[in-house]
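Input.
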Amino acid sequence: MLDITFDPARIDVEAAHRFLRTSYWAQDIPLDVLRRAIAHSLCVAAFDHGAQVGFARLVTDRATFAYLADVYVLPDYRGQGVSRQLLAALLGHPEVQGLRRLLLVTRDAHGLYERFGFTPLAAPARFMERHDPAVYRAAAPSAVA
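Output.
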């Protein structure tokens, strides 16, 4: 039986970092950047016997919009419904009910997200992005006072 939690004190940021820094979407993410991302997001984690085996976060204003990011399940736990449990908990959270728009980007998990109502963009020409896949390899920016 998995333990699913939203408790920020229980999220194992270092475990998330070990996985995410090698992922195709967050490759080389610095630990301090991930700490800030997690601190400013609604996060959920799955634990098995005290070890974090899955994670997801929602970047959201908790009123109108959310962006689903950093969803992962460790390889040994895939195919067992862990991602579905994480997403059900996260998307069922009371603070994100009634959002007008939820977005995500995925290379290969379309079937999973379709189960939760995600569809291809209805008007992709309206969306734009500013994407820098090498940003984490660049020198760290200086601190802003």
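The two ends are 46 Å apart (CA to CA).
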